[in-house]
């Protein structure tokens, strides 16, 4: 979703967070840093008070747009089937049986909870 949004032009962090439903600030930060590290997104800091930071796709990042658009189109055309599959899965698996599948996601979720409490989670 981040690449799709940036394909429409330069965006500020707050614009991306507002436009991408369900993303936490922490997850958006992690995603943008990873995309920047991979050379897909550039970050420009404007010397103002308060500082303004814009994100945009690099030329290499723009090469992903067609593929991302196809993925979004596929997801949109299969959303009903995905909801049926999710409901079927949820009916078979009680929430208390669920365990975190990805430790990185768990770490991000814990950092988000800690931030809401007002302090950083211990490094692990």
> How many helices in DSSP terms?
7
Mean pLDDT: 85
Give the low-confidence spans: none
Q: Work out the helicity level.
A: 55-70%
What's the story with the biggest beta sheet? 3 strands, antiparallel
In short, what is this structure?
Helices cover 57% and strands 11% of the residues.
Structural features, described:
By secondary structure, the protein is mostly helical. It has one domain (2-117): Arc Repressor Mutant, subunit A, CATH 1.10.10. The chain has 7 helices and 3 strands, in the order αβααββαααα. It has helices spanning 2-6, 13-19, 25-37, 59-62, 65-77, 79-92, 103-117, and strands at residues 11-12, 41-46, 52-57. The chain has a 3-stranded antiparallel β-sheet with strand order 1-3-2. The longest helix is centred in the C-terminal third of the chain and has 15 residues, at 103-117.
Quick tags:
single chain; 124 residues; mainly alpha; Arc Repressor Mutant, subunit A; three-stranded antiparallel β-sheet; 7 helices; 57% helix; 11% strand
């Amino acid at each position: 979703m981040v690449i799709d949004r940036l394909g429409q032009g330069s965006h500020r962090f707050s614009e991306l967070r507002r436009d991408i439903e369900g993303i936490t600030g922490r997850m958006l930060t992690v995603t943008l840093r990873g995309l920047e590290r991979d050379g897909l997104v550039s970050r420009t800091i404007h010397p103002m008070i308060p500082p303004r930071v814009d994100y945009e796709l690099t030329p290499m990042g723009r090469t992903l747009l067609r593929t991302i658009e196809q993925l979004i189109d596929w997801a949109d055309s299969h959303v009903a089937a995905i909801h049926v599959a999710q409901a079927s899965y949820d009916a078979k698996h009680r929430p208390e049986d669920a365990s975190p599948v990805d430790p990185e996601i768990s770490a991000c979720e814990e950092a988000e909870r800690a931030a809401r409490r007002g302090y950083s989670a211990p490094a692990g």
